[in-house]
Amino acid sequence: MNAEESLSNKNRTKRMAKIAGSVMLSGTLLWTAMPTQAAVQWLPYTDISKNWAKKEIVSAVEKGLFVAGKENPRFFPQRPMTRAEFLTLLDRLFTLGQDQLYSLTLTSGADHLVETNGTEEPYLPYRDVDRLTWMYEPILRVSVVLERLYGPQAIQNIFPGKEFHPEQPITWQESANLIQMFVTAAPEKKALQILSERGWLDGNQSKPLTRADAAVLADKVSAYLEQGEVLPLLDYDGQKFPQVPYIENIFPLFYGYLKNSTGDDKVFLDSVTAVSNQMDNPDTYRRLEALGKAGYPNQVGIHYYLSWNPDTDLSQNLNEAIAAIDAYYADKIVIPETLKLLMANVYDICLQIEYTDPQIYEQTLPRLYGYEQKMKQGSEEWQQWAIYIAALEMKSGAMDKALAHYQQLTEIDAGLINTVYYLANQGRLGEAEEVLDNAGKRLKPDRKQLLITLADELNSLKKQPDYIRDLAYALKRTEAVRGYKVTGESTLSGYLFHYTQVFDEKTKASHTTGFFQSPYKLVKEKLETYDDYRNNVQYSYDFEQQKWTKTKTGSFDYLHEWVESQSVEQRAEQLGARYLQQSFGSYDVITEWIPGDKLVKSADSIEFDSARIKRVPMYVNKYYVDRRSGFVVRHIWRYEEVYDSNEYAAYSGQETYGDYDQVKMVIPATISEQAGEEK
Amino acid sequence: MKCLRGIILGVAFTLLFGTTSGYAETQNPYLELDEVFQLLHENHLSRPAESQLVQGALAHVREEVNETKKQELTYAKTDDTLDELEARLSSWQNQYDLEPRFLLTESINGMLSTLDDPHTVFFTEEELRKFTDSVENQMVGFGFRLSTKNDRLLIREIIPNSPAAASELQPGDQILGVDDIDLSGKSLEDALNLLKGPEGSQAVLRIYREKESAEKQIRLKRARLSIPEAEGTLFNDNIGYIKLETFGSDAATQVRDQLQKLTNSQTPMKALIFDLRDNGGGYLTAARDIASLFMEDGLLMYTTDRNGVEMQTWVHNGRQVNYPVIILVNENTASASELLSGSLRDHGIARLVGTKTYGKGSAQQIIPLTDGDALKITLNEYFTPNHMVVNHVGLQPDIEVEDYVGQVIAGLKHFDVKRFVLSESEDGTQINGVEFPILEQIFKEDTAGSTMRNSVLSSITGDQSLPKEGYTSIQSYLAQHKEIGWQKIGNQTIITIP
């Protein structure tokens, strides 16, 4: 959210939808209750009507996980599922859950296949899966995602050797090894154990996985993925907390209406339609106001929709939002869902007022505290009130008060997540664990996944010192060797670079060769440089002029250059970096997220290429450490930096390291002597 | 780790945000000229200088105006910037009342003429569609193929999923006319031209169906038709034959399916003749995918651009063929065809039979321009995996055979075929069960009795002493060559060699 965003109604809708956590379906007003379920259930296949997994098969088809239709009349539920089929299913599951995994894969959509600009397209390490087959792309995509998550050739840890045997039935063990990519359980846990703890193992594991088994598994995993992120406590841009609940419909009617209402009712309904379809104009609000003054019974609705008026002052909107709550209590009918929306509305308006008046939360809270006496404490209604009170308190800086509220709200998801997040943030990991334990005791079955996910994440938070130590050790090892070789590909604001670099740690010099491509050209250009890190000098070859030029280096042009100069310990302590270590095959993969708000604060005084950093929407590194050698073998990164000059730098890439200790290089004297100073 | 820091500093470029792409939106009538100029100047393989392009454009416009309007335009030899060019164009436009579109296309053509590169082309929207249609093997028509028999135009074949297929037309129907045009007695070429029309247009065909002794009128629409890019069949000798006409976007899957058909047939093929004659190329990705049907892993080619950046294109996750392959090539085998042939030969997978190929070793990209036109621009030169130059040179075949039929026979002979069954009809030539178009008759009857074309006879017998041109009396040849078996059954001639 940024201050420049104009406060038009349109933006508000977008924003409200955002805080509500739902994507709004514009124009879908529910005039009447939806038909609950068709009397005769449609079945996508002819051979599942009596199958035990019928429900899950249908649900998986509805989610696009299996293809039905004329060409595929039968599902063959009892047939063992082949490896190729399972990987295709996994690919579709990943597509469903890619946003939830984004913080770990740093890729979305199909871009992991095209990102390399065709220079080095990924391929499979198998001889028996051919390009021009239906299974090739899904298997390749899974392999690419696995490699992102777990390091080079990760798929070989599940299917070793030069043959993939695509037609071979997949085992429960293999499927568990694959499915665990969707969770971040501790490395010591076995894949089957992870799945069984989550209740994802239903079939007979001594028998092959049937297609029905796979449908059930996929249905459960997709339900888990729909529920939220894989790392719910991770907040790398500093925008995610405090969290507020999910709201289904932000344009309800509040009262029951007939389909063909007339008179005042019709005026009201038309106004709601106008607001929700973003077709509202000053008349819309004049009519609502007139209705309200005339004593129209649905005062909740009147005030709620008046609070959307883009032409009145935000403080007036806030007054209407609060008046809607007054009207709600005046009705004396308990509808927690309604109160939730009304409180969300107040919170949303406050978030907007904050840009001009940071004190808004402190000013608004006293206007809302009074409602508490109208409710039974701990009731569902009270919970909806309290969850927003806590959010406002958190925003006002009253951390303790907010946390006290959250701790009474652990029965609802947002309450639990906020409690664990803020406790963990203060280093109170033991208390956070206790909260989870207690929540687990009063377990509702649909919350099991969330509790396990939070426990896994809390566990990783407890291990931060280990991760920091491991990463620091691996990076220092690199610096302790004589030299090494880097091959890399990266994109900086549309410019693609492809290079090989040799570093000599003793002479503190490097030599780089490769090419780059400008987004404004169709052809590539060569590049070659020598860097002298002792004297902060760079020699680069000008291929047009055919001569070497010399430039002074040593200042920071970009935020990421400054961050790179910070040790892992500094990043952890001063920049609030968070780490996750995952182990798979022969690699430990350490992901590092540095929260944008901390980066902006810490780098506040640094002049980057005559601009200051304003916002950092994303700052993530992934390091792949070979457990046998202890060396970092690969590094992937994705940074987004916005400067106060309004320059936006998106920088992402991948480097692979090798030839440790085998590289020696000195900058040729002919070059350092000849090079002319850059103008 | 010190990441990319060094590199970013080493390269002189500015980060651009917003509208700095060089193609700013203006009211400029020569917007596409700007674009083409920029594209050529910054990307064309030959690194054309600004003055070269500007002078080329001015000279060409002057020539065109002189020819069409008999006006003598003048400009300075010192005009060497885009601004100067545009200033000239707009002053000419006013002074001589010239169409901006005319000036635009002629100055672009003038720039292109300085490149000495027939493959860099300015396309109008219509021309672009024709070009992609030809790459994709698409055409607009009713959906039948014609042949002539005794001066009658007959429907030889009906293309599936076409308007013709949905109508009551049948193979063998004689075409008498279209709308008001009488087609009787017309040559095949004339008839095809008269049958043409825009997509979606309707026409009434007059036909005569011999077996019903009836004349009929059939209303048909012209539609866009996709002609198969690859077709495959087996020679009598279990040798597969696949003809690829173009490297369109379906080429690879079609070749895959044809290969599948041939390897899964009752008598699986033991060798393959892959016909790339008269195949002018197409998409590089199609060539790469097709290469993957012949090799598991391997380098397809090297490419270089104007800045000397060399890239490798690899084939991965392909399948290795387990039978020998012959590729038929001729002087019209060009571009993607040469790329594929060269690569498969360098990897020892295929041998080339035919004549020296065209020699188009450059790769183009099609860039859409602002007002709907497009520029096909040469960006790269490519080389085979053994670094063989293709451009302007062509590939020399392993077995050189000039005759069209002789090339097929040489391919079969390479796979130890000793028995050749030849027949000729109005529709084509059959060689061991596979049909080829007739270019020149194989057998002729003359006063000396039956004769056979020398080039075909020598390709079967390997007899180099025969003259290249002309026909030889079969009877006298057989009398001198007792080792050659000869049989005639119906219209089939069966020749066996030891």
UniProtKB/TrEMBL annotation, chain B:
Signal peptide: 1-24
Pfam families found in the cross-reference section: PDZ_6, Peptidase_S41
Transmembrane segments: none
GO biological process terms on file: proteolysis; signal transduction
Entry's EC annotation: 3.4.21.102
InterPro entries: ClpP/crotonase-like_dom_sf, PDZ, PDZ_6, PDZ_sf, Peptidase_S41A, Tail-specific_protease
GO cellular component: outer membrane-bounded periplasmic space
SMART domains: PDZ (SM00228), TSPc (SM00245)
Molecular-function GO term, any one: serine-type endopeptidase activity
Alphabetical UniProt keywords: Hydrolase, Protease, Serine protease, Signal
Family: Belongs to the peptidase S41A family.
Name of the protein this chain belongs to: Carboxyl-terminal processing protease
Lineage: Bacteria, Bacillati, Bacillota, Bacilli, Bacillales
